[in-house]
């Protein structure tokens, strides 16, 4: 594949972010599959809490972030799991985007949990992406017990690393797929219009 640009969004703000480590490995696999890549660490963006009465242009770095998402052929959303769902920084970033950024876009999902069950966060993100009419890659990556999943910045389990790398390759492979028909939820998602 040529001319495919994959953007990974890291929803973790931690210095020693396992989500960032996993996204770096994922994007490495995307590059090996022929794509250009960019990692957007949300700790580097000034994103105030979303306020529907505030224009995106006046909301810190929200417009810059939305532009990068808009220009991507595929986006991978990486999140730590907090209280069974995805992180508030990632929620804020998605809220500053809308149909212009996500409609018809290929989206991959990655969740990283300190505990054993990271799948609910993936379900929640899948629902949000479908409401924005994104095409969500069926393959997803979940890293449980992240405290023991990495050692010196590398994956301990080769099979888990391959699952993450596969998501990176699929982001390239399906970047230009003909998307599914609009989701039922998207008709009701008036907040995503005109962002």
UniProtKB/TrEMBL annotation:
SUPFAM superfamilies: Flavoproteins (SSF52218). One of its GO terms (cellular component) is cytosol. GO terms for molecular function: FMN binding; oxidoreductase activity. Pfam families: FMN_red (PF03358). It comes from the Archaea. Residues 5-145 form the NADPH-dependent FMN reductase-like domain. Belongs to the SsuE family. Isf subfamily. This is NAD(P)H-dependent FMN reductase. The lineage of its organism: Archaea, Methanobacteriati, Methanobacteriota, Stenosarchaea group, Halobacteria.
């Amino acid at each position: 594949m040529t001319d495919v640009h994959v953007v990974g969004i890291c929803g973790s703000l931690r210095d020693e972010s396992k989500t960032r480590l996993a996204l770096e490995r994922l994007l490495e696999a995307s590059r090996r599959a022929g794509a250009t890549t960019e990692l957007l660490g949300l700790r580097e963006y000034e994103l105030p809490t979303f306020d529907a009465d505030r224009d995106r242009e006046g909301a810190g770095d929200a417009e810059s972030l939305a532009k990068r998402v808009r220009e991507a052929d595929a986006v991978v959303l990486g999140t730590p799991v907090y209280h069974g769902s995805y992180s508030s920084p990632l929620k804020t970033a998605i809220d500053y985007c809308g149909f212009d950024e996500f409609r018809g876009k290929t989206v991959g999902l990655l969740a990283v949990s300190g505990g054993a069950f990271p799948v609910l966060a993936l379900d929640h993100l899948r629902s949000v992406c479908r409401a924005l009419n994104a095409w969500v890659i069926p393959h997803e990556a979940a890293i449980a017990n992240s405290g023991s999943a990495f050692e010196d910045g590398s994956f301990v389990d080769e099979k888990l690393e391959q699952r993450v790398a596969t998501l990176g390759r699929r982001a390239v492979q399906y970047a230009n797929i003909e998307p599914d028909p609009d989701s039922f939820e998207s008709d009701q998602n008036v907040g995503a219009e005109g962002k």
